[in-house]
Specification:
With 469 residues, the chain is mainly β. The chain has two domains: 294 residues, Immunoglobulin-like (Sandwich), CATH 2.60.40.420; 140 residues, Immunoglobulin-like (Sandwich), CATH 2.60.40. 7% of the residues lie in helices and 39% in strands. It is built from six helices and 31 strands. Strands 20, 21, 23, 25, 26, 27 and 29 form a seven-stranded mixed sheet that branches. Strands 10-9-12-17-14-15 form a six-stranded mixed sheet, with no helix packed on it. A hairpin with a 5-residue loop joins strand 18 and strand 19. The chain is globular, with a radius of gyration of 21 Å. Bound molecules: CU-O-CU linkage and copper (II) ion. The site of copper (II) ion has 5 residues, from loops.
Length: 469
């Protein structure tokens, strides 16, 4: 695939000059200020970070509590999360708790489940967390602009029992940035129509926990749990866990019954999470590589000697989710059309050339089932407890990462072929030409979004909603 120079993650143009002075990965902050009534304080405000390491300038970002990524929020499964969100930005915002099967009023979708939180205002989020696992939170107002400026952070729901010690339970937030020649966030290109109608806003630089090329300390002979979260606006990360000796134990927060070997590359699309376990047998450096094009390291695991042998591997228990009833399901098609590289032409089936021109003038390039963007009526309504089978068909020239709010679904089939592992997910990828079938029990009442998590696609048409009553 052709990639222009500006969007290519290019080792030569960027990585080489940044290599001086590797930073240790910033340990995610567990502590948040607590108010007297027990709320964690989360404040969105402007701040600055050196994304490109010591040789780059300061980028103007929007941050939660002044950190990149936002502070790690960690609670036990079933615990009540109480967050007091304060908006100190110049524009309205809100916080979405991605992947949590949450009470609808706390889902954080500005304009649908709550009014946008105005500058200077506060909103209290309070919800229960039914599933243990790796989740994240991010801005959900003008997400295409707010998330790639820094407004996201990890949300870890701990198992009932502590299975990994603090230094062997590692959260890695992977984010792609578009930097200019000075290593500073390119803000002029935010909202570029060309990005929105193509693969989305792609960057040329990766950070892990906000740090450029960090060292990630591991202990020889100890099992580690590594939680990967892709917070990028559009970048699908091609990873190869096997190359650093890791096995997969979960996706999108839901853990498996047994660890899985993952030969070759595994995609981690925007918003997706991947939980790994690994036990390094020798001290030394193990590169953590991006596999797009020629493999290149964007971080290094540094394995140090440990005084003692680690405990044997104990896997987290799996969450209990309602099993879809495929015999008695509401079947819904989800046809994706539009976009550049030929996709716009298909839109002329249902509209005149004038209508299409108007759509593009409005910044709408994509459709779901023939309509573009949020409609007054839901795409479908399900009765509470009903199984929904969604068959998506990607008739565009680009990949998409589709997210369903408030539910996890089983990934059943690709191109009509039942999958070997019908994993639970909250975000699925679909390549051009592909059909993907998913199923879930619509057991969470309220209005829920379905959208592409390539955030420029979402705002330019790939966003709809359904209702559970
Ligand atoms: Cu993480 Cu509506 O999104
Ligand atoms: Cu998309």
């Amino acid at each position: 695939m052709h990639m222009s120079r500006r969007t290519n993650l290019n080792r030569r143009t960027f990585l080489r000059t940044a290599l001086s002075g590797c930073a240790a990965v910033a340990a995610p902050q567990f502590s948040l200020a607590k108010t007297t009534d027990g709320f964690l304080e989360l404040t969105a405000a402007k701040g600055q970070v050196r994304l490109y390491g010591a040789n780059g300038g300061q980028s103007d970002l929007w941050l939660y509590n002044g950190r990149l990524p936002g502070p790690e929020i960690r609670v036990k499964r079933g615990e009540r999360v109480r967050v007091r969100f304060k908006n100190e930005l110049d524009e309205p915002s809100s916080v979405h708790w991605h992947g949590i099967r949450i009470d609808n009023s706390m889902d954080g979708v500005a304009g649908m489940t709550q009014p946008p939180v105005q500058p200077g205002e506060v909103f209290d989020y309070e919800f229960l967390t039914p599933d243990a696992g790796t989740y994240w939170y991010h801005a959900h107002n003008m997400s295409w602009n707010q998330v790639p400026r820094g407004l996201s952070g990890p949300l870890i729901i701990e198992d009932d029992e502590t299975l990994f010690s603090q230094d062997t339970d590692i959260t890695l937030v992977l984010s792609d940035w578009r930097l200019d020649e000075n290593g500073i966030l390119d803000t002029a290109s935010f909202g570029a129509r060309h990005d929105f109608s193509h693969a989305g806003r792609l960057g040329n630089w990766l950070t892990i926990n906000g740090t450029s090329l960090p060292d990630i300390p591991l202990k020889k002979g100890h099992w580690h749990r590594v939680r990967l979260i892709n917070t990028s606006a559009s970048r699908i990360l091609d990873l190869a866990p096997e190359r650093f000796g890791a096995k997969l134990i979960g996706l999108d927060g839901q853990t498996f019954n047994a660890p899985r070997d993952m030969p070759g590359t595994v995609q981690l699309a925007p918003a997706q999470r991947m939980d790994l376990v690994l036990r390094p047998e020798a001290t030394g450096t193990i590169p953590f590589e991006m596999m797009t094009g020629r493999p290149f390291a964007f971080a290094n695991f540094q394995v140090k000697d440990a005084e003692s042998e680690g405990p044997s591997l104990r896997l987290p228990p799996v969450n209990t989710l309602p099993e879809p009833d495929l015999q008695d399901a509401l079947e819904m098609p989800l046809l994706m059309e539009g976009g550049a590289m030929g996709g716009m032409r298909s839109l002329l089936r249902d509209r005149t050339e004038d209508e299409l021109r108007q759509m593009m003038q409005d910044g709408l390039f994509w459709t779901f089932n023939g309509t573009s963007g949020m409609q007054d009526a839901p795409m479908f309504s399900a009765k509470r407890g009903e199984t929904v089978v969604l068959e998506s068909r990607n008739d565009t020239s680009f990949a998409h990462a589709m997210h369903v709010h408030g539910h996890h679904f089983r990934l059943l089939e690709r191109n009509g072929e039942p999958l070997e592992h019908q994993d639970w997910r909250d975000t699925f990828t679909t390549d051009p030409g592909e059909t993907v079938k998913i199923a879930f029990v619509a057991d969470n009442p309220g209005k829920w979004l379905i959208h592409c998590h390539m955030l420029g696609h979402a705002v330019s048409g790939m966003m709809t909603w359904f209702e559970v009553s």
